Amino acid sequence: MPFFFLWGFLVWLGASLIFRFLGQVFFIPDNTLLIVLSYIFVVPLILVLTFPIYKLKKIQENEDRIKAAVFIALPGMLIDSVVLIYFDQVFVNLSVETDRFFASWLMWAYSLILFTGFYNNKK
Description:
Elements (H helix, E strand, L loop, with lengths): L1 H25 L5 H25 L5 H22 L3 H4 L8 H18 L7
């Protein structure tokens, strides 16, 4: 499971860097359509970041898949719980009013990662 923890950290790092430097493109409080699209866009992104990794590591048992999903989500959840306290200092390109949208989006993304662990691909 250390591989999945590392993968989760790398996913968190990549996403954090994108939002640190390009977050103002995704989170504009007055642009509801853009915010909704960011919620929709993350669904296939999470699928691409999880299912191929499960397959690569030959994770087939439901219990192992759930553990792997938890280990992918865990680093980001732990780090973001601290980062969000300093939102205005870390994400200087985002307005302070965006913090609730950003936090909500993070919870949505982490929930999706966890849900991938419950998907049973056996026929």
